[in-house]
Amino acid sequence: MARHCRLLLAFAFAFVVALSSSRTAHALITLDDANFEHDTQASTGQTTGRWLVLAVSRANKELDIEWEDALSFETPRDDGLIAAVVTCSTSPKTCKRLGVSDAGKNKLMLFRDQKLYVAENASQLAERDAVLAWATEGYKTASQRMNVPPEPSVLSETVEWVQGLLGKKRARAEL
Q1: Mean pLDDT, to the nearest integer, of 65-91?
Q2: What domains, with CATH codes, occur in the chain?
Q3: What is the mean pLDDT of the chain?
């Protein structure tokens, strides 16, 4: 009888360990110019899940502890929601693509079903329950929703580079 109790207790312990390891504290994913499209597949099919992304503006430079806490939830979630952050001071191309201004506020976005939804009052959502409520239901009423902007092509980046050179030459000529 004692042997059966120990065996049952060992089985119960193993079951609890297995359950707790399947849901772990979320290590916030960092996205950047190099991995944004690859990881999110935001404009190319979005088969990796639904991405809740906070773009930290250049004015703020780093992620506030409140936002880090708000975006740190257990994963995997049944709804496929994945939280990430992109810092505009180190990922200017991605932030430009997503319309995050240099001097602006942080921007909370949901990439879902090949659409981009923007939280209008992101600063009011810097709390885990509010973030999850917006990401699961509140996004449906977002006034800022659009198709995900495509990655810039090599041609468009080259044209922009040349325009930048010409603009610098014009500025020097005017001095």
Answers
A1: 86
A2: 24-153 (3.40.30.10)
A3: 79
